Amino acid sequence: MSAAMYTPPGRERVSMPSAPHEAGHDPIGQSHQRSRAFGITEQSEPDFSSPLRGDLTSALDENRFLFQHAAPVMETLYDQIANTHSMVLLTSAKGMVLHSLGDNDFLEKASRVALMPGMDWSEQTKGTNAIGTALTEEEALTVHGNQHFLNANKFLTCSCSPIFDPYGQVIGALDVTGDQRSFHQHTLALVRMSAQMIENHMFADIFPKAIRVHFHTRSEFLGTLVEGIAVFSPEGRFISANRSAQFQIGLPFAALKAHTFSSLFGIPISSLVDLFSGTLPTPKQLVLHNGVAVWCRVKIKAANPWNAGRPMPVTPQQAEEQAAATPSPAVAKVVPRKPHLSTLQYLDTGDPQVSAVIHKLRMVSGKDIPVMILGETGTGKDLLAQAIHGDSNRSGQPFVSVNCASIPDTLIESELFGYEEGAFTGARKKGSIGKILQANGGTLFLDEIGDMPKHLQARLLRVLQERRVSPLGAGKEVDVDVAIVSATHKNLKDMIARGDFREDLYYRLNGLVVRLPALRERTDFDLVVQKIVKSLCESGQNIGIAPRVMDIFKRYHWPGNFRQLHNLLRTAVVMVGCAGMIDMEHLPDDFLEELEHGLPHPVAQRLSTPVPTVDASLPEVPSAPPMPEPTVDGQKLQDVAISAMAQMLRLHGGNVSAAAKALGVSRNTIYRKKHLLPPDLLG
Q1: Which segments constitute the Sigma-54 factor interaction domain (predicted)?
Q2: Which end of the chain is more exposed for a tag (fewer CB within 10 A), N or C?
Q3: Three-state secondary structure call for residue 253
């Protein structure tokens, strides 16, 4: 590996038998001790009933940001190790395998020990292994042959590196696993460099309002894997730095948070902007605080209101800046990103109800009045919350989102309020500051507030009243300054009447209450559809929508609102290709099936009849002939749908919710077909 490859000390230890260790630190030995403490025995059989397996879709959804940036790097890495009886794996921060690429013969062997997507490879379930141990130690390492705790895994050799997000927190891990007889000492270096490549790619897609400084002591290394990247706010406050930047500056991430651009580079941030504005993009030399001269390029990127993707990982710790919020929990592959509206003006697309909401929000902007957003699931409450933050005087500070419905009751308290080291069994080393303190100075978005457990409502109320928070296990309170935006699809007043929601908390949260209309109620539907399609199209694509399809869209009830519409259009755009028109054959089968059963006769008749223009005023035609049953490759659509439902129910052990989510349909769609499914699948 090149001597110019900078990695902070402690991130690249190779735990091979012949490799020296730091005094007193034996990661493999300590991991074996932890494995025994977890109650695992060396004779334990591979666990194919991982408690995380059923959550693969959710994990892929939560780790979409990581997956987007890791998938291309995984392909490149696999090209370098192909035909070596090996595989490349990507995992979540909890150790769940999200994706794998490998030689077919070795993939089959790996599956015998549950080394495949959906399985949990944390130390708690598999004992000492490269994935679980690298995540626990937060360092790159190799676990070879007999170093594995389980006898079943001792035929493997595994090299793994944790992946750190732009906030310095572990977001996942990259691993290369192979037959222990084919071990190569350079594999770990390859994995480590690939992980750093993923980390650098993340920087390129985030912080759109920030100033990125790319630097290295040698100008020829600018733009390469080994360049340092440091990110600053327009005012010069430090936001983030990659591993190479930390090494060159000579300070760890935690220490850098106390610095500014001026204290690190010796000149005001305004001088930097002047230096790099209006000139050719040639490197210029600056001097770091430690006297080291570095060549720099500076990137100042304006935020794009229709930029896509969700902001950063779902759970960044100690977030100092989340100016680049880009929403959309998506699915298990590299997919076109969901459109993101960063300010209120871009949400105003002509619907009178939405315009009235935006007018009210502009009147209270900057006044730190709590805002409560009501509306059905999928109406864009999260987009509106980010737009509120983006238009406020806190826009340069963190925007932190908490979905109260998606965090287990047992974890939501520690997620919100944080905890001190050792506060409870299994707590993260060094503790966690919690979401409320992460949002300090910025905006805290409490999504699905109606699902917050009753016993935590009192703690939240106290934080809002006193502006102080006490992490679990801490003996002190910390001042906190946050703007509050909450959202729910539930009727909180009914919940108050039933005693399920605190009335005093309700009146703390509803300084201004606004309601987002459902998609079917909006008058700007055409424009919304056009913007979504445009955001999904790649450069050079010009895709339209057939009039009969738009007519159907307008008549459909859209129970999933924008989320459902976006997912449907995403699939259709992919099927259409480079150019053309979205027509009936490009729509998903389950959607066509719902149309068959749910739309009035005039539309059902026209599903197979071309119409020249959109006509929303056709009269009822009671005697219209029934719609011909759709087919797929000669099979009746219903038969195809039933087969898919049965297969997915078997895969998810009869769990209707999980099967419906995997198929992209509602649970009611499956229940309606209950009489056609094998009786053993639905109890």
Answers
A1: 347-574
A2: C
A3: helix
Q: What is the dihedral of CA 309, 313, 315, 321, to 10 degrees?
A: -90
Q: Angle 27-37/130-137 helices, nearest 10 degrees?
A: 100
Residue 574 DSSP symbol: H
Which two tokens mark 187? 């594999």
Contacts of 50 (CB under 8 A, 6+ apart): 96, 114, 118, 119, 120, 125
Q: What count of other Cβ atoms lies within 10 Å of the Cβ of residue 654? A: 13
CA 606 from chain centre, in angstroms, equals 40
Do residues 447 and 441 make contact, with C-beta atoms less than 8 angstroms apart? no
Dist CA 64 CA 327 (whole Å): 11
At 74-129, the pLDDT tens digits run: 888 888 887 788 899 999 999 999 999 888 888 888 888 989 888 999 999 999 99
Closest by Cα among 209, 569, 519 to 381: 519
CA 422 to chain centre: 28
**Would you state the structure tokens that stand for residue 492, as one six-digit string?**
């909180």
533, two tokens: 């399609």
From the list 335, 331, 334, the residue with the least C-alpha distance to 72 is 334
Q: Identify whether the C-beta of residue 195 lies closer than 8 Å to the C-beta of residue 8.
A: no
If you write DSSP's letter for every residue of 170-234 in order, what string do you get? EEEEEEEEEEGGG--TTHHHHHHHHHHHHHHHHHHTS-TTSEEEEEESSGGGTTSTT-EEEEE-T
